[in-house]
Structure formats: C-alpha cells, structure tokens
Amino acid sequence: QVQLVESGGGLVQAGGSLRLSCAASGRTFSSNPMGWFRQAPGKEREFVAAIIRSGGGTYYGDSVKGRFTISRDYAKNTVYLQMNSLKRDDTAVYYCAADSASQKRRDSYYFSQRSYDYWGQGTQVTVSS
Q: How many CA atoms, within 13 angstroms, populate the side-chain half-sphere of residue 10?
C-alpha cells in the first residue's frame, strides 16, 4: 500500500522558514514526478512546486518562486519543500503528491493536481504576522 506522509508543518512568524518533508512508502518514486500543493480555507487547492526525475526539472507556482525550493532524497524516497521568507498568505494545508507514471510530459502537466495519483494527508502551515 502506497503512503505519503508529510511532516514539518507548524506555526511560524512572517519572514521565517520551515522545511516540509514527505516520506513515501509502499513503492519507490525515484523516477516519478512528485509535487506539493496547498489549500487555504475557502480556496481551491493550489499548485506549489514539483520535481521530476533525476536530472529533470523543478517547477514552481508564481506565488512561491524565489522563496520555496523543492528537492528530493532518492535514497530515502523523500521529497522536501524548503520554505523561506514566509508570508501570511502562505498559510494553508500543504499536501504532497506523487504521479504513478514516469514518462516526461509537457510542463503544464505537472501543475495540475489531476496529474497525481497518490496524496498525503496534509500538514498545516500557519504564518503569523
């Protein structure tokens, strides 16, 4: 059974940093795209970042470019989201996601939550002023 488990969320002041982790189990995702999405109260789920297989690229939502960095540890089957210069607008539940397919797609594919087959339960990030 595939599981994605997020951790690292919490309460942080504006301008601060957090690092989220997403540990995958049940299968290896080293060749598969993995991503982060977030959902704030009353809003739709929003793309944050994605990383494709080794040597591939990374993608970021416009609102987090330059502040967030996605990375992965293949040995640990884990993906990370380093979040710096946090703003109140970053407050949301952050979800990790993984794609069951590994072939290269057009860039827009990675921005859609429909492209991902596995999801974590989410971790809350709250940024205070």
A: 11
